[in-house]
Write a structure and sequence with these properties.
The complex is a heterodimer of chains A (127) and B (785). Chain A is mostly helical and 127 residues long. The N and C termini of chain A lie far apart (41 Å). By secondary structure, chain B is mainly α. In chain B, the strands form 5 sheets. A 3-stranded mixed β-sheet of chain B has the order 4-3-7. In chain B, strand 1 and strand 2 form a beta hairpin. The radius of gyration of chain B is 27 Å and the shape is globular. Classes of the chains: A mainly alpha (127), B mainly alpha (785).
């Protein structure tokens, strides 16, 4: 495998892993009432929490979107880098590697699109 | 100064008022003082060592036969030619400068070593040994101040005088410099003398040492330059410092969980709608600053695009010979200078905007006149210095080039006249703040928050002025030391301190946190930054002629800089949580959604851009091969734009939220700008700068540093392609990120007059407490009372 093609494949894979990491980070709850920071005011908070709407208020809603957005940027970057590699190197080993990468990227894109749809339709906590 | 619990009597306008008690315990103040004294004492030690161990500039360099090749005056004159023509914004010297052109230290050293080796018979054991011996033997005689070159070195020097003349006087261009940029043979001869001296410094062993004045940088096998023991050992030790520091930080936070941002107690707050908060005339005048800020931001990005384009298409701009009128070095100079100007414009405006709210009362008469005067002066300095840099490169100012033209040190490119004017302007800004604050300062303990705000502001002109010590005729190591006081200490530490105080104050004024909590964060920030950042400045000075102990101190303490960055990232998350709490507890909406989102982005980029990308290049062993590559640009873009840029935009949106009427305000535009700036910046780093830097680093280690910096390598098809790939991200960044800010800024200026004036002190409040608690706090600012 050409060293440059190996570098581009490794870099695209790293970007894909970054995208996966960012997306899973966005799944974490940012419920302010659960944090140590606001521990002192928890009793009052718990009371209010029951009155909170199903869909979390800002910034919880934006946190998931923020991570999804950055994840999408990283995935798109991985796709572009892989596409560049496809144009420049077309040996059998390179093509197989690039093909596998594109399949992984496509699967992640599909997953992100589904997450985004679910997020906008049902509220992120249900996703 | 009051004794705790016993307020001192203070006379204000004929009345005797008590000073408020000190909010922070003495232990905090002592800790800040101790860490600060330690940091600046070590910094003073490094300054002294910089002068003591400065590589000498010989009075003359002669050949073995006694012929004078060049003099010390030629070297100094060569440095002036280098600076005056903006060559430091094209290539670099000792690894410092711009990244399109070669590093001239490494370039000269490699070319000269090849020529010497060839003179000794070409590749072979004996020729290699003699070449290494020629370059490493330090022939400097302190008594006669003379350096002796061997005949082979002298011949190489003469060859390179011709080579560099051809390079700089090239009438065709195709280098990024304007055609025939430096065509006076005397100038190019002096320039070559300067490069030759720098290469001598890089290879000749320090007296009584087995490494060169530059700790054996650049890596160059031909002259036996390999990493020193210090470079390797201090890289390892700095890793240990980082691990221990992060562990200590987490342990401290686990042990004392009251550290960091804490929300207010159970009080219900009601945010005042922005159009119900009255504004003073000076606050309204800040709208002009934000419009100017957005305009400068736009110009900065456009010239940034132009400079980046040279990497993708060295011959011009889509077929236009742009190097004739806007060569790489002028657009990069403007890009770098404007990055400071637009960010500082926002910080100055935000400081003026917050002052009446901090003072909690209407401002003194004429404050808005001074504010407008400051804006006018700022515009004069910005426009004057940028045009001066262009004219300086064309030789418009004769002997006054360093005063009005291009002084030429990267980030301190502006002429000294403009540099002094800017320092005066910053001092004038402090006076404006002092006028607005003095009634409040008079009744506050000198360690309380209004004073911290004032001290942080006062530090800005004080430390910017230090840059005046970097004089074009100073030796490079000395000039570079003072230059980095501005680039690192002023930007990375004192701007950071000022912004931390401002962000903390915003949260206090909004009622999100109490003053004591905000002050704890500020004190913690000062301690952490003083511990790592002040001494850590030396990580810029590993290889520029400083002694090995400066390298050791820089490596060890700059690793600690990642710790406060981690701390700030953890804290950024709490911003979100506090915002959420206030949003849900206030019957009125939280008006600063997008300003807070920009602060969250600051946390993200602080960790990634300053922390991860910064640490990536921080170890001496990495920096040894990497300095001056795209990995440095990757760090500087992610950190400068990601942290200071996002902060500047956050401050802008915070202030304009009050200046733009409700019916003219667009959260949608702020949202578009937020996403576009973040996506554009991420694209810039992940698609171009990071992979390009990795490719360059690999080339540097495998082929040699000189090769990784060669124009031919940088513009080869893969690297040019990576450069082209940046285009979509830049379009998003400018079109979606900057232009909406310009429109919001324009609306601020257009509609600021429609906002109600402050009639009494209470009009300046940003929130009201709906549910007073039985134990009312005593440490609230006036704005929160």
């Amino acid at each position: 495998m050409h060293p440059e093609a190996a570098f581009l494949a490794g870099y695209a894979l790293a970007l894909t892993l970054v995208a996966i990491g960012l997306e899973s980070l966005g799944r974490r709850s940012t419920d302010p009432w659960a944090s140590r920071t606001l521990a002192a005011s928890r009793p009052a908070a718990e009371h209010r929490r029951r009155d909170r709407p199903e869909r979390p208020a800002w910034p919880d809603s934006d946190v998931a979107t923020f991570h999804l957005g950055l994840s999408a940027v990283a995935l798109f970057a991985a796709f572009v880098i892989t596409a560049v590699s496809v144009i420049r190197y077309s040996g059998p080993i390179e093509l197989v590697t690039q093909g596998v990468l594109l399949v992984v990227i496509a699967a992640r894109v599909r997953h992100l699109v589904a997450r985004h749809r679910a997020l906008t339709r049902r509220g992120w906590r249900d996703v | 100064m009051s004794i705790e619990g016993l307020p001192a009597a203070v006379h204000v306008r004929g009345h005797v008022l008590p000073r408020s008690d000190r909010v922070m315990a003495k232990g905090w103040i002592q800790a800040v003082a101790l860490v600060g004294i330690f940091g600046f004492t070590v910094l003073g030690f490094m300054a002294a060592r910089t002068y003591q161990a400065d590589p000498p500039i010989p009075d003359r360099v002669v050949s073995a036969s006694g012929e004078v090749l060049f003099t010390g005056e030629d070297v100094r004159g060569g440095q002036e030619v280098f600076l005056r023509n903006g060559v430091m914004q094209f290539g670099s010297i000792f690894g410092h400068g711009a990244y399109l052109g070669p590093d001239f230290t490494a370039d000269y050293l490699h070319r000269a070593a090849l020529a010497v080796e060839a003179a000794y018979g070409g590749e072979g054991t004996d020729a290699s040994r003699r070449t290494i011996e020629d370059f490493r033997t330090n022939t400097y005689d302190p008594a006669t101040k003379t350096v002796v070159y061997t005949d082979a070195q002298a011949a190489a020097y003469e060859q390179l005088v011709e080579h560099y003349h051809e390079f700089f006087a090239n009438p065709v261009g195709d280098t990024g410099l304007r055609p025939a940029a430096i065509d006076d043979p005397e100038d190019t001869r002096r320039l070559t003398a300067y490069f030759s001296w720098s290469a001598w410094v890089a290879a000749a062993e320090r007296p009584d040492k087995d490494y060169s004045y530059t700790n054996n940088w650049p890596p160059e096998e031909l002259v036996g330059n390999t990493p020193t023991a210090d470079v390797v050992v201090w890289s390892v030790l700095s890793l240990i410092a980082l691990l221990a520091g992060i562990g200590a930080l987490l342990a401290v936070f686990g042990r004392w969980n009251w550290l960091g941002w804490q929300g207010r107690d159970q009080q219900e707050l009601s945010f005042r709608a922005p159009d119900r908060v009255a504004l003073t005339p000076s606050q309204k005048a800040t709208a002009g600053f934000f419009l100017v800020m957005a305009a400068l931001f736009l110009v900065q990005t456009l010239v940034g695009v132009a400079s980046q384009h040279y990497r993708a298409e060295i011959g011009g701009f889509f077929g236009v010979d742009s190097d004739r009128f806007l060569p790489f070095n002028i657009v990069r100079t403007w890009h770098v200078q404007l990055s400071i100007f637009w960010v500082v414009t926002s910080f100055l405006a935000a400081g003026i905007f917050l002052t009446p709210m901090i003072a909690g009362r209407k401002e003194p008469r004429g404050q808005h006149v001074l504010t407008n005067l400051l804006l006018g002066a700022l515009v004069v300095v910005v426009v004057g210095s940028l045009l001066g840099e262009l004219g300086g490169m064309h030789g418009w100012f004769g002997d006054l080039w360093s005063w009005f033209g291009m002084q030429g040190f990267e980030y301190l490119d502006l002429g000294r006249f403009w540099q002094i004017l800017l320092t005066v302007g910053l001092s004038f800004w402090v006076v404006v703040l002092w006028r607005g604050l003095r009634s409040r300062l008079a009744v506050e303990h000198r360690t309380n928050m209004p004073w911290l705000f004032f001290y942080a502001a006062l530090a800005l002109p004080a430390f910017y002025a230090v840059g005046l010590l970097a004089h074009p005729r100073a030796t490079f190591a000395v000039a570079d030391f003072w230059r980095f006081i501005v680039v690192h200490l002023w930007v990375e530490d004192f701007l950071e301190l000022f912004t931390t105080v401002m962000v903390a104050y915003m949260f206090v004024l909004l009622g999100v946190v109490r003053q004591r909590v905000a002050m704890t964060v500020i004190f913690l920030d000062i301690i952490l930054y003083s511990a790592g950042g002040v001494i850590g400045m030396a990580h810029h000075l590993y290889f520029n002629g400083e002694p090995a102990e400066v390298l050791a101190l820089g490596a060890f303490f700059s690793a600690l800089e990642v710790i406060p960055l981690t701390f700030l990232t953890l804290e950024a998350w709490t911003f979100l949580q506090l915002g959420a709490r206030q949003e849900s507890s206030s019957p009125t909406p939280f008006p600063h959604r997008w300003a807070v989102m920009f602060l969250v982005a600051v946390g993200f980029w602080n960790f990634l851009g300053a922390g991860v990308f910064g640490f990536l290049i921080n170890l001496p062993i990495v920096s040894y091969y990497e300095i001056g590559t795209a990995l440095t640009a990757n760090h500087s873009h992610a950190a400068m734009m990601g942290v200071y840029g996002m902060l500047a935009v956050g401050f802008m949106l915070f202030c304009l939220r009050y200046l733009v009427p409700e019916d003219r305000w667009s959260d949608k535009l702020a949202k578009i700008s937020f996403w576009s700036l973040n996506i554009g910046l991420a694209w810039m780093c992940f698609v171009t700068l990071l992979p390009l830097g990795v490719v360059q680093l690999h080339r540097s280690v495998s082929e040699g540093y000189w090769s990784a910096r060669e124009l031919n390598f940088l513009t080869n098809d893969l690297n040019a392609l990576l450069g082209w790939l940046r285009l979509p991200g830049d379009v998003v960044f400018i079109g979606g990120g900057v232009l909406p800010l310009l429109w919001i800024g324009f609306n601020g200026v257009r509609h600021r007059g429609s906002h109600q004036d402050a009639l009494d002190d209470g009009d300046l409040l940003l929130f009201t407490e709906v549910t007073p608690t039985p134990t009312a706090p005593t440490d609230e600012p006036a704005g929160a009372r």
